[in-house]
Write a structure and sequence with these properties.
Number of domains: 2
Helix content: 40-55%
Strand content: 15-25%
Largest sheet: 6 strands, antiparallel
Keywords: Membrane, Mitochondrion, Transmembrane, Transmembrane helix
Radius of gyration: 27 Å
Order of helices and strands: HHHEHEHEHEEHE
Distance between the termini: 41 Å
Number of strands: 6
Length: about 220
Amino acid sequence: MFYIITIIMIILNIIYHISGLFSVLAIIVWTINLFVSTMNLIQDGENFWYRMVQFLSISVIIYIISLNIYLYYYDIYKLAFIIPLSINKISYLDDIMDDYQNNIFFLGNVNTDIFNAADSKEISDFLMKLDSNKTYVVTFDLILDWDAYELGEPSLVLSKPILVTKESHSQLISDFILERFYSACYLYALDTLDETVLRDHSELGILVRFKEINLFWK
């Protein structure tokens, strides 16, 4: 009996950490219903309603446990997926669109930040602001003149949206932005610009737009 109680307590503790107190209370309530209905069936084995309560209790308990097992493995799989993003290479949103285009949900509003293309420390500070275990879609706009931009003048998008997490590599992102900056200078004949001017926020810089997404696997 002691071992059974211990196993039950371990299961309840795991469920509590996965989905909270509500699920634990639900299992306790349905377990009590199961116990009471079983005791009554011992005395009156032909009672239809006791049998129904017993069946329903078992079904609900199995459902709650199965749901928590699914959530547990979902969290592990999700964590294993998002951690590598933009660590060894830049991960584009397009890379996952074919497999998850019907399973991607964009959450909340677009947030913005500003930093220099060649400053990995500033990018590292930006990454530290992100929530752990969440994935973000990020774009980078080259702003040639902040005053003009505030008046509605256009900016230059440096790349397709990329995916980042709190664990992404700041130096990799810094090198990527710098490479995109040089490419833009070449393609659009911005020959007067160089890496050093990116350090002057008063004239030119990088506008970062980022938005949380949620990935639901098939």
